[in-house]
Amino acid sequence: MRFRCPRQHINKKDKSQSETFCLFVICSLIHALVHGSLVMGSFKGHALPGSFFFVAGIWWTAKYALWHASRRNKNLGSTRLSSRVSQRRLEVIESSIVIFFSFVGILAEQFADNGPKLHLYDSVEKHWEDLMNWQHTTMYLFFGLAGTVTLILHTTEGAPLATDRLMLAMAFFNEGFLFFYHLHGRAMLDVHVHQLLLYAIFGEALVSFLEVFHRGNIVLELLRCTLTVLQGTWFWQIGLVLYPPSGPDWDQKDTGNMMFITMCYSWHLAFAMMVVSVIYCTVSCGVRSRLKRTPPMEMGLLKPRDRDPESEDEVL
């Protein structure tokens, strides 16, 4: 019995729509950069990184759910979905997007509004120039470095496979480290909302570091996805609390506000868990449903190595 592999057809309409969407996003970012609305010390400045992390958490969840479900249901259709070629292609695209948005964030912090424009110290006035912007720039820089390492890793194979997770852990740790020393002299509620953010950030750093030694562990991957979604939604919450676009300002010294914000953080965590769970279950059910419609292969066509546990190199 001859078995012919189905050919993959590229939908030109979908490709055109994707390119149009990417162009729209780029133009929107450039417009916001020119008008100075991406600086983190504003509502939009918190909404922007919040949106990045929220989308990243959703993307990671869908990606890991797809790969995990495909590896658990090995046949021709699932193997194509979880092949090293397709995984590397996704990793290259993902790392390129991370590098681009990190670069946009650096430009926003340095050149939008009254940014330091790459000037760190004013030798005439004898003072530092906009250190808050420089700290935000450093945060974006580390994520850009993480994206660069991932891009090099999956295009040249010139570094150990676990290096990308290690750099991601360093990027999250650096973000939390800078935020930890970012709060001196601020109001009580301002400090509290940022301290709650640190739990998600340092949690992501720890989980990413554990993935260096347990690559492909779906529990760790989904935990990182949950904390990333949590960080994204909480950035939005910080923007709403510190820079409300409408309505009165929050009382920074009210203990009732402190209690509510703490409870609100738990709601955000529950929401992040629900989002990750729904996406994971949806993707897994979709993969299984698709594989049920795939014509079964004869047992003689299955090689023994297809049923062996995957090596680290097979789990990207």
TrEMBL record:
Keyword flag Transferase: no
What top-level branch of life does the organism fall under? Answer: Eukaryota
Using the UniProt record, give the first listed, main subcellular location: membrane
Going by the UniProt record, its keywords in alphabetical order are:
Membrane, Transmembrane, Transmembrane helix
Q: Which residues cross the membrane?
A: 21-41, 47-69, 90-112, 132-154, 166-184, 196-213, 225-245, 265-287
Could you tell me which InterPro entries the record lists for this protein? DUF716 (IPR006904), TMEM45 (IPR042127)
Q: Which GO cellular component terms, listed alphabetically, does the Swiss-Prot or TrEMBL entry include? A: membrane
Q: What subcellular locations does the record give?
A: Membrane
What kind of membrane protein is this, topologically?
Multi-pass membrane protein
Which family is this protein grouped under? Belongs to the TMEM45 family.
Protein name as catalogued: Transmembrane protein 45A
What is the scientific name of the source organism?
A: Solea senegalensis
